[in-house]
Amino acid sequence: MTQVQTDMSVESLVLRAQRICDQNGARFTSIREKVFRLLAGTHSGVGAYELLEQLKQTEPAAKPATIYRALEFLTEQGFIHKIESSNAFMLCHHFDHHHPAQLLICQQCGHVEELHSNVLFKEFSSLADAKGFSIQQQTIEARGLCKNCQN
Reading across the β-sheet that carries 88-91, which strands appear in turn? Predict the structure, then answer.
């Protein structure tokens, strides 16, 4: 993908996020937008402190609380997924609707691919229901090697 295509797709994502925030009555502040853009520029999970270091390039006064508040907001809006196993975050490109996620995480290069399988969601939910468990949020993580790293 060329830099122009990447920039255009990031801009498109930002406009969608701004529109959703407007509809929800939420403020998409400049800090939140900058963190969103940082996550939009990667295809792997990024830790909070790595994001903080990147953010400090344009916001030198940024502190850990700054990044954690932005990440909390972006998560609440459904714009990002937390990769629990590595305590990292990734942008969700399907944030205009609530959905369960299945994440394929490459152990070698860190690339994360997001899947949406209603079959997996329904089966997992059915199994949980049979145990009297009510799932509030579902993200399934699988670790392995991506196509590029297998070659």
Answer: 46-47, 88-91, 80-83
Judged on CB neighbours under 10 Å (0-12, 13-18, 19+), 52 is: buried
Domain limits, CATH 1.10.10.10, in the chain: 3-91
- Fold of the 3-91 domain: Arc Repressor Mutant, subunit A (1.10.10)
pTM: 0.84
Query: How confident is the model at residue 6, as a pLDDT?
Result: 54
Does CATH place domain 101-150 in 3.30.1490.190? yes
Tokens of 87: 């305590």
pLDDT over 50 (residue 16): yes
Element (H, E) at 141: strand 139-144
What residues contact 17, with CB distance under 8 A and at least 6 apart? 28, 33, 36, 77, 79, 95
